[in-house]
């Protein structure tokens, strides 16, 4: 099934830019704006698996209840003022941002940020990397009619937590949402609140499937027209890494603070 997804192997820094910025010209808007969102993986063998799926791998049937327990307990012990609004969608975004196991996956609007995460880990520098490109316009066409109409009315490509909180979409009942166009559920992309500079600098957004037990990768494999896979060969990683550093796409910027600074210095001065 995965053979049906268009797969492109990067040949150079220039080729990477050409591939990742493809189809960016929007004749209606008369400007360059990509229809794709991106996820960079340091190892091309890594799958699109959520942290919730990994945590509940020994008993997938436990995952829906596990998710509720995790969020409920997170809300119980977190300071109440950590979210701007007391909605499940705000709490879910905050929990993901701070490392709780959720059914969310991290994505970015920026191809350069995705390139960074595909090349930054020195432990995988001799391993091929991977970037997923997903056409968010096509994903929107897979939404239940009523949800798609909400995006159409506002005129935006993805949801945000405010729009989701104001909608009738219940996080815990997504799997039973009416008007679904297919039997294997639907996917939503949404932008988190600007909780800190990391969210802002990474140009971040999240994906979520209506069924917490379902695999996002399998969902895409059944819809190869929605996405592309871009392979970053291991022998091209240093070339791409050096160009990203010169463009200031580094841990120091994307992970603001002393931790990001330390990660950047450890990698930048690594003896090749």
Secondary-structure element pattern, one letter each? EHEEEHHHEHEHHEHEHEHEHHH
Overall domain count: 1
- Residue runs with pLDDT of under 50 for 5 or more positions: none
Beta-strand proportion: 15-25%
- Estimated structural class: alpha+beta
Q: How many E-type strands? A: 10
Average pLDDT value? 92
**Oligomeric nature of the chains:** single chain
Please tell me what the overall shape is. globular
**Radius of gyration over C-alpha positions, nearest whole angstrom:** 19 Å
Helix content: 25-40%
Largest sheet: 4 strands, mixed
Number of helices: 13
Strand numbers in spatial order across the main sheet = 1-10-6-4
The separation of the N and C termini measures 38 Å
Would you spell out the secondary-structure blueprint of this structure?
Elements: E1 6-9, H1 13-20, E2 25-26, E3 31-32, E4 36-41, H2 51-55, H3 63-77, H4 88-97, E5 105-108, H5 111-119, E6 129-135, H6 136-140, H7 145-154, E7 159-160, H8 161-166, E8 187-191, H9 197-201, E9 204-209, H10 216-221, E10 227-232, H11 237-246, H12 251-254, H13 258-268
Parallel strand pairs: 1-10, 7-8
Antiparallel strand pairs: 2-3, 4-6, 5-9, 6-10, 8-9
Helix pairs in contact: 5-11
């Amino acid at each position: 099934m995965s053979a049906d997804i268009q797969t492109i192997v990067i040949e150079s820094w220039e080729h990477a830019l050409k591939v990742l910025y493809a189809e960016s010209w929007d004749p209606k808007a008369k400007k360059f704006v990509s229809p794709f969102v991106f996820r960079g993986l340091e190892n091309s063998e890594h799958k699109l698996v959520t942290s919730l799926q990994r945590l509940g791998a020994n008993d997938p049937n436990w995952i829906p209840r596990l998710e509720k327990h995790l969020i409920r307990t997170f809300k119980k012990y977190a300071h109440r003022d950590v979210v701007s609004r007391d909605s499940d969608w705000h709490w879910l975004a905050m929990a993901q941002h701070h490392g709780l196991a959720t059914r969310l996956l991290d994505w970015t609007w920026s191809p350069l940020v995705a390139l960074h995460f595909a090349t930054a880990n020195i432990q995988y520098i001799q391993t091929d990397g991977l970037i997923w490109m997903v056409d968010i316009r096509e994903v929107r066409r897979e939404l239940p009619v009523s949800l798609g109409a909400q995006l159409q009315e506002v005129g935006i490509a993805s949801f945000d937590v405010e729009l989701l909180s104001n909608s009738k979409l219940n996080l815990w009942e997504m799997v039973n949402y009416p008007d679904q166009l297919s039997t294997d559920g639907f996917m939503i992309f949404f932008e988190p609140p600007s909780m800190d500079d990391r969210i802002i600098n990474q140009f971040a957004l999240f994906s979520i499937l209506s069924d917490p037990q379902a695999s996002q990768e399998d969902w895409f494999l059944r819809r190869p027209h929605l996405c592309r896979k871009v392979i970053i060969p291991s022998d091209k990683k240093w070339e791409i890494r050096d160009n990203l550093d010169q463009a200031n796409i580094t841990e120091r910027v994307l992970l603001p603070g002393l931790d990001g600074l330390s990660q950047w210095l450890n990698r930048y001065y690594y003896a090749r």
